[in-house]
Amino acid sequence: MATPLSDPSLSPLRTIAVVGLGTMGTGIAEVLAKAGREVVGIDISEAQAAKCVAALESSTARGVERGRLTEQDRAEILDRVRTSTDLRAAADADLVIEVAPESYEIKQQIFRELDGIVRPETIMATGTNALSVTRLAADSARPERVLGLHFFNPAPAMRLVEVVSSVLTAPAAVTAVTDLALDLGKEPVAVGDRPGFVADGLLFGYLNQAAAMYEAKYASREDIDAAMRLGCGLPMGPLALLDMIGVDTARTVLEAMYAASRDRLHAPAPILKQLSEAGLTGRKAGRGFYTYEAPGSGTVVRDALTPLEGGNLVPGREIRSVGVAGSGTMASGIAEVFAKAGYEVVLAARSEEKAQTAKARIGKSLSRSVDKGRMTAEAAAQTLDRITPAGSYDAFADVDLAVEAVAEDLEVKRQLFAALDKVCKPGAILATTTSSLPVVACARATSRPQDVIGMHFFNPAPAMKLVEVVRTVLTADDVHATVREVCGRIRKHAVDCGDRAGFIVNALLFPYLNNAIKMVQEHYASLDDIDAAMKLGGGYPMGPFELLDVVGLDVSLAIEKVLHREFRDPGLAPAPLLEHLVAAGCLGRKTGRGFREYAKR
């Protein structure tokens, strides 16, 4: 079925010039032409202009093949686009969108020339994501008509458009381009002028920390990327995303952000400079953090850093039975995971009643799986039969692996590990599910620190595929090998990391959440606009404030305090707004109010 073209008569912006016909400029031209606008594509390179036309012809042909356009639609779209190598072709434009390279000199030259070409009422927009819109506007003869219009790549597919005002921008200009964005089927978000705006401002800080984590050899590139995809539901890992964006582009954005904020979290990781200067800029070069089949290809190929399949040569220990300590949601979920995989499970809590309640919770979970057709009633019954509830940790005497999932309190965990040390047989592996506490502190509470390791499951454990396997400096090789093997048997993806605060996921996730809070605290953007920007522009399954309210503001604050205490970076200090909300008892969905209010159940 063909898509109806929107009515351009509803907007005063009918003729639009796009200056710079690279990937982004070509995408914007396509969006505009499909929405009924007359488009003037301008590029200093005739070859680039021809490439733009060819791309539009190819894209619209695919639209016809897929039934999204008729042949008449296609002809009309192509007729609405003309190209030129001369800026004077923009003379009759109602709006000019500049998407030239990220350089003040280049952009300022374009704006100065346009001042002498376009009509006084023409709006001039820059597509920059790193440079100051105010600085570009101040150099213009009509600064009140200059603003930012930041599309996301690929422009035809990505719905987010950031509308960036400077202190000089006329409200009428903002209204006009906002209405245009809506008419294009986009989601406009109003933001102020600072490097990175909302989406890139949050995204690039996170990408920078991931690059620094890899540079420090804390975790492999594959494990960092898998952790963020599986632990946070992101469409791509941060290092793969840096390769797609362009390592050089990321470095440029971060340098602009750091110049404005002086926040060390924005200071580009040295590896970004090294890769950029070596020409290893990512997919476009055929090599960046990963190696690709060819320049421009998205297909990763093996290189010297690719881990070998089945590369672990250390034999593991035999695991037949598993003890799970705790009675909460996480403990129940972990017990269910092991029982489904065929292990005999002892589920121990501080009382028989708590253990029975936890087993009943697992029974309900298994029943839901049966109702949804994910397992048979017989399999569910057999799984539940493998779980033995116990009111004392003495029941762990014969288990081969003991996994604790009790309160996230170091003293509570240390006491538990001291108890497990006395109860569990020699050779049993003792694992903690902590998400933020030092695993080695738990290990030192025992007489066998070599047998202690971290197994950080994610909630809900039956659904989440990731387990962070955390080695301490004392963990034995065969213990690590055993836990990796067990993760495979319970159908989880194991990633290796060292014993430091936040491991991989939380160390990258919570600074990003903290920076989002700072944006609201500084009245830079609203909760709704930030959540929309990260979902639409970054591909996040939830916006940062949705996620904070789900996780719990008290839990988030505790993790951020641990990160700040360990890394001692001022940029990691918890946002005062988060501390104030926690002090007020606004902890998120569980209390009915966090960053937003929720209906009482």
Describe this protein's structure.
With 601 residues, the chain is of the alpha/beta class. Strand 9 and strand 10 (300-301) form a beta hairpin. It contains 22 helices and 18 strands. It is elongated. Keywords: Oxidoreductase. Residues 15-193, 322-499 form the 3-hydroxyacyl-CoA dehydrogenase NAD binding domain.
Tags for this entry?
601 residues, alpha/beta, eight-stranded mixed sheet, 18 strands, elongated, disordered N terminus, 3-OHacyl-CoA_DH_NAD-bd, oxidoreductase
- The value of Rg in angstroms is 28 Å
Distance between the termini: 43 Å
Enumerate the strands of the largest sheet in spatial order, edge to edge or round the barrel: 3-2-1-4-5-6-7-8
How is the biggest beta sheet arranged?
Answer: 8 strands, mixed
Q: Could you say which structural class the secondary elements and strand pairing correspond to?
A: alpha/beta
Overall spatial form: elongated
Helix proportion range: 40-55%
Number of separate strands: 18
**What proportion strand?**
5-15%
What is this structure, in a nutshell?
This protein is an alpha/beta fold. It contains 22 helices and 18 strands. Helix 1 (23-34) packs across helix 2, helix 7 (199-215) crosses helix 9 and helix 10 crosses helix 11 (270-277).
SSE topology:
Blueprint (H helix, E strand, L loop, with lengths): L14 E5 L3 H12 L3 E5 L3 H20 L5 H9 L1 E4 L10 E4 L5 H12 L7 E4 L6 H6 L7 E6 L8 E6 L5 H13 L3 E6 L6 H17 L5 H12 L5 H8 L1 H15 L8 H8 L13 E2 L7 E2 L19 E5 L3 H12 L3 E5 L3 H20 L5 H9 L1 E4 L10 E4 L5 H14 L5 E4 L6 H5 L8 E6 L8 E6 L5 H13 L3 E6 L6 H17 L5 H12 L5 H8 L1 H15 L8 H8 L18
Parallel strand pairs: 1-2, 1-4, 2-3, 4-5, 5-6, 7-8, 11-12, 11-14, 12-13, 14-15, 15-16, 17-18
Antiparallel strand pairs: 6-7, 9-10, 16-17
Helix pairs in contact: 1-2, 2-3, 7-9, 7-10, 7-18, 7-19, 10-11, 12-13, 13-14, 18-21
